[in-house]
Amino acid sequence: MSITIKAEIAQSPINAAFLAGDRLRVATAQATQNQLLRRLAKLDPGVFARLCEDLQPVPLERGAVLGVLHKPLEWVYFVDSGVVSVVAEAGDRQSLEVAIVGKEGVAGFADALGRLGLPYRLVVQLSGLAYRVRTGVVTEHVFSCTALHELLMSYSQFVMHQLTQSAVCSRFHGSVQRLARWLILTADRAGTNRLQLTHEFVAQMVGAPRSAVTAAAAELRARKIIEYGRGTIIIKSVKRLHARACDCVDAVPVLPPE
Prior knowledge:
- The structure is a single chain.
- The protein has helices at 3-10, 35-43, 45-52, 110-113, 135-143, 147-172, 175-190, 199-206, 210-222, 238-244, 248-251; strands spanning 17-20, 23-26, 56-60, 65-67, 75-91, 94-101, 106-107, 121-134, 194-196, 226-229, 232-235.
- The chain is α+β, with helices and mostly antiparallel strands.
- It has 2 domains: 3-168, Jelly Rolls (Sandwich), CATH 2.60.120; 173-251, Arc Repressor Mutant, subunit A.
- A hairpin with a 2-residue loop joins strand 1 (17-20) and strand 2.
């Protein structure tokens, strides 16, 4: 890890952690914003401590590909800040975001449950920070039925709920509804209403032609619900954006159940 990256991590809001060599050892549950790690610390402090020995900090850079379709994944990522998209592909360079991972969850854990390779891509949607751990370490916890296994099983149900709702939304709802839903969910995960996103990237995530996304965004801007320009989308009114979204926006909770 370079000195530059170390400096960026040291300046992050993770004020209860400390650097040791090229690793970031999480001293307490308050050292991370990741909800699964926080819950693991409460359920089993011993397992949490052992897992922390293997965690490594890694910056999430927008557009970075963390996992490739049909390829085994070397790392599992506990997202601390930023947003990672789970992206399905339909050929002819068409893609659709089917799930979102923020500080509530973990990206790539499915590969730790069975070495069949990913059925999707993992793409960083918004920059941030994650703690990565080798897939084999997570697999050991799963087969040992530790508290981490219990949390991952619960989180897998949460992800399946996202996948199901995404399929329903893509089939039955229009571009404006889908865009509004997607912006709300992304802002929730990112913790900000100012999103560094282009229309082209949004079109890939929503699974709609760029022209349709541009028209939908223009309609929302005309109603003074959002503003955009120079690769930035700003949500001016979450309440009014919510009113323009489909019912899918409330069908899946932002955080998995305790």
